[in-house]
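idk why but the lab printer keeps eating my pages so im just putting this in chat instead. protein + NDP:
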Amino acid sequence: MSVILVTGGTGLVGKGIQYAIETEPEGSRFGKQPGEKWIFASSSEADLRDLEQTKKLFEKYKPTHVIHLAALVGGLFKNMKYKMTFLRDNMLINDNVLHTSHLTGVKKVVSCLSTCVYPDKVEYPLDETKIHLGLPHDSNFGYAHAKRMVDVANHAYKDQYGSNFTSAIPTNVFGPYDNYDLEGAHVIPALVHRCYLAKKNGTPFIVGGTGKPLRQFIYSRDLGKLFIWQLREYDDVEPVILSVGEDEEISIKEVTDAIVKAMDFKGEYSFDTTRADGQFRKPASNKKLLNLMGGFEFTPFDKALDESVKWFVQNYDSART
Ligand code: NDP
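predcted complex ->
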């Protein structure tokens, strides 16, 4: 019997994993296997910044495998304002989860990094070898260093104890159960929420910047399957970038057009080009992933976005806004 504990299991990425486990055929590559028990934990069950609460959670479920997603996450503004909180909370959460996994003999841990932790000055495309090759961007210095230490710890656990701890590096994630809080949200949920309000209030939908920057977006329900693959089929300490390909970059304008369509927004829609754009592109390679998996069928962006927008509209009252 395997018990898989997903920390941060109630967030955007955790819900993507849960969706695959509950909807893919039992026994299939991404479906639930016979004898598997999946636990999707939230912070209300244990505050993982606290070692005692972390230990109690592990005592309760006795996990044999862990997918570690729990983290203090946030957009640019929050990251800049609370650097020390992002550094300390994430260092504590990661240390408590890895240390307790080690003490209790967990067979495998897949932790979650992010392409945001890469060096600010780096040669593109990003790949799995470049995480530590320079300082992260000053805006998310605390978050980035805490996350990078997970990769350092994974190597140290392997070298000292032979542990099977590894990590995943997703690009920008979107999907049902995202954080739509206008202050702290990432680009897709923020635009979805603002388009929703423009439609509801009959006001113009104005998007900051030129709409030209390109990004790689991964649907949380696709990412869920990739985490399940990594847990079951990948046994190496080095991280794997979980993303659509570099040739599937999407401009912010394309994202916004898709939101307008999915929301059936008929009002005025324009770009405020006086607002800063951010980096033009920061492509990441998914070659390692596709070579290892032997290919993967990603959900077309428009379909994934349409499902996410419909979810938001139907769940507006309970969504994180
Ligand atoms: P969410 O904010 O949607 O979910 C965060 C999860 O972590 C929630 O289940 C939350 O529980 C839990 N959590 C937060 N703090 C604590 C704590 N102190 N103790 C226990 N649990 C806690 O985030 P995502 O799903 O987007 O992020 C999951 C992982 O993916 C993170 O590690 C993040 O860094 C990474 N990532 C996300 C990307 C994105 O675009 N969203 C991109 C790349 C990486 P609760 O709901 O109870 O508060």
